[in-house]
Amino acid sequence: MAQKYTEARKAGNRKWDAANLDRISVAAPKGTKERWKAAAVALDKSLNQLIVEAVDHQISQDRDKGPSEAPQDGFEAGAVLLPSEAYKRAVAASTASGEDLPEFVARAVDVQAKRDKTSLAMGINPATGGKLEKEA
Length: 136
Prior knowledge:
The protein is mainly α. The protein has two domains: 24-63; 81-136. Helix 4 packs across helix 5 (101-121). The termini are far apart. It is elongated. The longest helix has 21 residues, at 101-121. The mean pLDDT is 84. It has helices at 7-20, 32-42, 47-64, 84-97, 101-121.
């Protein structure tokens, strides 16, 4: 027979939590929670467990990088949130090219930056394709 979840048990659990756990609030774009929950269910994990493992994994990867892989020039690597469709396209393109997603995105940024520089030199706004307005 299942044990009742009594008020005394709840109080005991809260006391244990307070003594043994840190609480962190995470803010993410609308829709993220449902996507993360679905991923956690697919992996047979709780959302909390998935997040904790993902953060710990990222930290251990960063710690294992050698000095040559460390961020340079005072800049730190960070996460960029992409709209869902853009992320899917990036994953598909990186898979097709045989690159890991971070490598593919870094290369794509370098290529686009070169294109933008060329457009600007020609007086073209790279974001709109229109002519640049001259500053007064």
